[in-house]
Structures
1.
Amino acid sequence: MDCPYYEQLQYAGDTRIQALISLYMTGDDRLAKNAIESLNESRTPDGLTQSRYPSFLPQYIPPFSLLWIGMMHDLWWYRGEADFLRQYLPGMRDVIGWFESRLAPSGLLGRLEWWDFVDWTKDFEDGVPPQEANGQSAILSLQFAAILREAADLESSFGSAEKAEHDRKLAAFKLVVLLPLLAGVVVAFLKKRGSMYAPLIYAAGIAVLSIRAVLPRFA
């Protein structure tokens, strides 16, 4: 749950952060498990989870389905819980399959259905990052690449070694495609005096590559 006043729904994006705080500060994984289970129960026939659940009004934010996988990885990273998480591997594969089927020939994600929310900022209309008519969003593609790496960790630990290898190769390919693009964007924005975007984009690219190297794992 976001908070008891402004938001009274369990959005995957907010819940992942709150679950991490709970796991790290208290070691209590009950709410994290409940969120993973609840969002899994919201799954549509094509594989996506709803953006928030339980809710009588369906809403779909495809990147939040990726964050649901991230919640699984967080629980495994800090608590293990392979026996609990194993039952959700088929759903995780369905989410990845949904995104993989929407890759463009460039290697980036094509245009996605529903609401491609990333963050509330004046430069993102309705929270959606700028993209071409056929998609090609660097931010959304980086999110997919990051989650592919986390899904590969789960597959390696208690799933399929073959699927882990597939996810890692796909993530590596996407990063190879994206990093020159990000470098070009950084250079372009650095040429604009006072631009606030260049350091943020650079930091985002570095974070995707380095976060696994600096976060400790607590079993």
2.
Amino acid sequence: MKYKEMLWSKRDELRTAALLLRYRTSEPTSESRKFLSYRRIAAILNLTHAEVEHICRKALNTPTALSDGKRVRKLDQEHLDFLLNQRTLEQWSGLTLQERTVRFHRVYTDKRIAVTSLRRLYLKNGIKRKKIRQEKPPPNEVRPHYKEDCVTALRELTEAKAAGQLLIYLDEINFTKRSLLTREWSSKNTNLTVDQENVYTGYRSVIAAITEERGVNLIRIQEQAVNAEDFLVYLKALRAKYGKRPITLFMDRLNVHKANSLKPWYPNLDITPCFNARYSPETNPIEAVFSKVKAIFSRKRVNCLVNRMAFDMDNEIRAAFRTITPEHCAACVRKSLHLL
């Protein structure tokens, strides 16, 4: 019994001391002047910040959030839908998590959410910081034909697959001095360094193709931009690789692909060109493959440059393409057909 009395006495003493340090009175009001911060009082009395804040708020009888006289702890589905809505994320773009909690409280004044709770809510629902995509909207003269182009491309692909033709998705990609990571882990007050002369060297243009069944099929690496002659050589190599099986080649509307010198070669090689909708790289599955290839290439390149090791550009490009599995290519194809 005496032990409990001692504990209660000790608690009352700490409560009184905390209030005196904070307000210079043991019975503060909402108009009382504040002298010391919660953190300073916690250090003096050997308490936690939360304990000091609880003592002071309880003395003032001002809980952080009220609803019908009761403290509100959980968010309703309406609030969760608001926080996770894509429109809300767009309107709050550029804001920190702390600023987002403030904005939320301004909309729902009887609710609050902590920064850590908002972060956990985002992660639980698959919301994370992602790279912002730069779109190139189609010109006004192209927009009326966009839907028609998508329908035509999807119909041609469906008919070719039903006829038993091999569907090949083709495009070109360039590896330049910009194909390099610009941010990497480093110690405090230090930065990783690379030799600038090694950065501003090398240019490769790559023609590549994938199929849903076999993944990456054939790549051609060269040191200059692709022209009609280079593309014709690639088409002949593609035909030699697949024998006499009819091919439907899905690609963009690059001038090289539609060059007059190439038009008679398509029927001669038993290749049917199928052109993607204009200004729609996302509907060509090989673009997603290129994104992964460039990420792998950039990581390897920065590792070699930072450690002053030799870097064979052609071999590393081929190595990056070898990491792409047929399952990944098949998933990219399914996603692109869904977008079409």
3.
Amino acid sequence: MRWRQKIGCRIKRSINMKMTTHIGRSSGSHAWIIAAVMATGVGLGAAMRGVAESPPSTPTKACAIETAGAPIQPAGLPVSVEVTLTNTGTDSIWYWCGGPADYPSAGKFTAEPTPVGAAGAAQRVECFNGQYVKGSGRFYDIKPGASKKVPLTIGALAAGSYDLIVQCQEEKMRSPKTGVDEVSWPAARAKALRLTITDDARLTATVRDSWVQRVLAGEPLAVQMASHWQSPEVTARLVAALNGDEDKAALCAAGVLWHLPPAELPKETAAAVAKAIEAGLRPRDHYTSAQPTLLIYLAMVAGNLGSDEALPAMVKLTHAENVFHEARWRAVQSLARFSQPQVTDELKALANDKEDDVRSAASIGLAQHGDVAAIPLLLDLIEKDTPHGWRGYHLEALAHFPNDPRAAAAIEGALKDPDALTRSYAERAWDAVKAARAKQKVAPGGK
């Protein structure tokens, strides 16, 4: 090794001497000598190091996906599979995740369930997996050689045999460094997974029971399945869970039920919701972290129903002082969805509450009921900007009174507000006012 270092030093000194000798008098006849000596020196240096000079390779994004799942699944229930995504490239694959789990959203995938032996193009269907696609979140990466398991579901299939192919499409994102669209998520297509969909009643009951238990445990995928694909048996079990002993199970059940249209809820839902609200308002020795959110979800279910049976419990919740204050103003929002005559009297009383957000929700609720008593209340909230940042909601509520000069003046004035967000709310409110006025000018019969 030492003799290589000595030779290298001598070559370097020789090159420096030749360059020094010729640099001052280089002309067209000598330039090639300098270039040849420099090239020789660089080549020898690389050879002595034993390293071949080559440009760095560009990282690539690529992936492979494999699909697995129970080969026999029941008809009438969502089909569940699991995709294993492996990074086969040399660069990390990044994805945004809003939770509640840490795997990618199902929106990156599509599925093609093709009946075995069927001719023609396959039908592409949407996938779901319970991940949030809006709100706050963070980026995760799948490093080269690493894998990530992603649960997916698709809608129920009729009995028969299917070849299910899952794929993901290429996605691009504008690079903040280069300003060029670069691949952020590579395309991939899995091999077909053969599935048999059966009408077996015993299998259906087994899968349905497992589904309910997963919902009550708070599994995101099961919760979304229950929210998107209504099953009367599953819904009845969730309604019964509202009056169980576990706050978390009741919370998970209510979190599904408030997504469902009232027509899909069993007739005993209102009584179960009222009973659960009453139980939540009773003093207890130990309060769980699930209780405040549970009361909010129960109020939302009650608001969807708007039934006489749920109204007394809702009124109690809006006036309760031993609950988390967010549960109160959320309950006031839901109370405003009831149409019974006594609701406006309750909202007027709540509009004088000591809590800003309760007063705001009550005032907006009165506007939704068309009660002009809401106008001075809303104008006062706008002037005081209480609660802070809610001016836009109050401006939108004033649009329920398109012919009232006080409401119109407040909305028009906000069109010039220095705050951009307030202006955007004012613009929407003013558009609603103009649309309502135009509708009033249309004579009966549309002429």
